[in-house]
Amino acid sequence: MAEDKFDRGTALTIFGTDRHEDMVALSLSIIIAFLVYLFI
Amino acid sequence: MVYSKKTPWTLIMGVIMVAYAYAVQSGAMAGVIKYLGTDRHVGEMLTLGYAFGGVAIVVGLWQLVAKSAEGHVDYYLSTIGGVTFIMLVAFIVKWGLDPQMGQWGKAAQSTLGFNFASVMNLNYVVMGILAGIVIVNVFKVPAWAEHGVRLSRLGLKTGVILLGTLYSLAELAQLGKLSVVLIGVFVLGSVGVVLWFGARRGLPNSMTGVLSAGVGVCGVSAAVAAAPVVQAKSTEIAYTIGTILMFGVICMFVFPIVGKAMGMGYIQFGAWAGTGILNSAQVAGAALAFQPNGIETLKVAEIFNITRVLFLPIIVLWLALWYVKREVGAQKVDLVHVVTSKFPLFVLGFILMFALSSTGIFAPARHYQGSYFDNSDKVMLKTGKDGKVQSKLLADKDLDALKAEASKVTRADQAAALTRLLENKKLMSIDDDDTLRGVVNAKILSKAGNDVLTKAHRAVRHTAPKIAMFRDLIAWFFTFGLVGLGMQITMASIKQAGGQPLVIGSIVGVIKAVGSLIVVLLMVSETI
Amino acid sequence: MTEYSRIVLASHGTPGGQAAERAALALCARGASLRQLVVVPDFWRGMMGDDWLNNASTRETYGRHVEHQIEAEIAVQVARVRTKATQLGLNYQCRTVLGKPAECLLAYSLEFAPELVVIGAPRPKGTTGLRSRMHLETLVRALGARLLIVPHP
User: Fold this and answer.
1) Cβ-defined contact of C47 to B495 (cutoff 8 Å)
2) What is the ipTM for the molecules in this complex?
3) Domain boundaries, chain A
4) What pLDDT score does C52 carry?
5) Distance between CA atoms of B289 and B468, rounded to whole angstroms?
6) What is the pLDDT of residues B331-354, one digit of tens each?
7) Is residue C8 assigned to a domain?
8) Cβ neighbours of B153 in A, within 8 Å
9) Where exactly are the structural domains of chain B?
10) Residues of B in contact with A5 (CB under 8 A)
């Protein structure tokens, strides 16, 4: 119905599943934490 | 399907950002920055302006010149336009509109009799969300940005995970306990009240079910989770979600105003917003609106938010059992499936970050609210640029003020800590600091005495630079997420608020807001 | 009374819509083509639970539920018109679209080229219902056929 616009992800997120989104958020956070740890 | 749109806008926005950052760097903006008083943002103007502007220019050029082929590269790069769009809105609001509004508020104070900008909390968070709402309802999100707006939730999740770095174990334990109690009482209470109300007024079970979840737990996401379980009709869903969205937007603006008017502290307000606001998305908004330049309120509110999400499966199960009992032919529910499919995995990320932080790699391990104790001469006596030594030790007049009142402190440990402070002109240990914070909070001394103690406290408490960095980053992630989230609130859906859900939802919503306000004021003190 | 051989009826079964249904059926010539257009209002796009704590599997279940629910509700309405239309020997078809009512009706009229378009009047003030109005000005400006607005019963 409302989903014909995207063939990947949903209107909520560009990722296929939440698990995927959660993992990306987690990796992003870890990378950021690592950069902060190294450079600040 | 190719997602990248041929548009010059990504490129144009990138050029604007880089040009702005360059103008700031070259000093061309000095007058404006001085007028707006935004000099403390200069650092982030440069970093963020160049970083996002640079990426937008490269990607914008690529999308304009090259022909995108279907695939991952196209898919992920197509979000850049929307991300840049949201960031541009955030820049304009944070570095322009927010300080400008502050100026206007001050200017109008004599005519209006109050500072409208500070009373109405017209800070960058509120205005960013408003900007999102206005963009989607008045102008429509441009097609090339639509795709990137879908990243706003990733921004919020990353913000929440990173937030884990800011808690100390004691804080988390205490906030956790408090949130479980408050959320437990109010969530289960309001679900129960709605179910009772519905039965009394003879509403269909499906309507009562979806409404109770929406009003009770975390707003739209709960209504959405419950709707299939209780087989809600389309109009019932529309009425309920409309009501919750309307309530959420109103709460987001009203809560901070009330909180300020009542002089609530960060912890009190965070606890209240986390319990009383129906829709979880607006909790973060209200917390940041209340305290835009710090993160203490958000920290409290998010713990409540997380607790709420953890309550969601319980409520869904309860409703399922309730519905099965009342309706013949209702589907049986699979307990394990409900719990696993509703468990928010990013909460584990939050815990992981918290664990990392507790090892002390970002700040000394005993940090509390991001600050740590240090009273060595290195930090107490600083040599300024002009060669003068600036001392953070207590001055003689401060010491005299304290000595005059020292007899008011009767508890042995507090008196001993005070004596050590008077002898050394500085706090000697973290325990002394904690003990004397207790004296301040108990309001044993006069205001002047308390001010001296607070001064001594500030002199030995330092914010770790890494933690400060995390705070700034988290604030940006939330700003990004909230502006994007604002772009998903459409008036057309809010207008559907109506029927019995509007009546019952409003009654229970107000009871919950007022009830939690009273409980928070009675139960929660600032020091926790 | 004039009878028409190509009519578009816009109704999703509200009381006003049902009045329009009756009028449309009465105005059809023998063997006429009656097309019913059911517009699912696009505010549903904002109702998909796009909340950051919602997760995609919940949303999917919910989306399916809403879709089935709306389909089932429409099917009841359509069945009623279909039965009557078949009894009258009309050539009846129904189409469901998602969007803004006036725009969808215009688009469909352009495609089907009816002689008459029948819609119900907006419901009176004070009655509850979903808020998704046929924007008359948009419709009247561009509609190439006669338009009949049936009063609310």
Assistant:
1) no
2) 0.82
3) 2-39
4) 60
5) 19
6) 666 767 767 766 777 788 888 888
7) yes
8) 12-13, 21
9) 9-150, 162-365+467-523, 372-463
10) 146
